UniProtKB/TrEMBL annotation:
Pfam families: Inhibitor_I9. This is Inhibitor I9 domain-containing protein. Residues 1-81 form the Inhibitor I9 domain. Keywords: Signal.
């Protein structure tokens, strides 16, 4: 898996997610033999955090993409093992990790938050820094 970081493009603000994804597929199609292969190799299109995408690529395809003028860099994605930096998360958020759902009352945070449905609690930061 590689992250392809593209130059900033003000037009992306106006584009739909599907239009951005199609644009990313066109980059992949330039290094893949078939459009279906390009489409299936696209794993994720970024719209808000960066202008770019994640894709399954060979080292040669990644190299070809990195030679394109619009491409800032192509970064290999490495699996990492993350660990918590706190042992007090439950206490900090006001939760009791031993509490069972049938023990909750209507005033409990877990009940009010629908047991965390559609909630992002945190964001992982690998500490990776890029310089240009």
């Amino acid at each position: 898996v590689y992250i392809v970081y593209l130059r900033h493009n003000d037009d992306n603000v106006k584009k739909t997610f599907e239009e951005i994804e199609d644009s990313h597929v066109s980059y992949l199609f330039s290094v893949k033999k078939f459009e279906e292969g390009a489409r299936s190799s696209l794993l994720y299109s970024y719209k808000h955090s960066i202008n770019g995408f994640a894709a399954l690529l060979t080292a040669d395809e990644a190299s070809q993409l990195s030679d394109m003028e619009e491409v800032v860099m192509v970064i290999p994605s490495h699996e990492r093992q993350y660990s918590l930096h706190t042992t007090r998360s439950w206490e900090f958020s006001g939760l009791d990790e031993e509490l069972k759902p049938n023990q909750l009352n209507r005033e409990d945070l877990l009940f009010k938050s629908q047991y965390g449905k559609d909630v992002i609690v945190g964001m992982m930061d690998s500490g990776t820094c890029f310089s240009f």
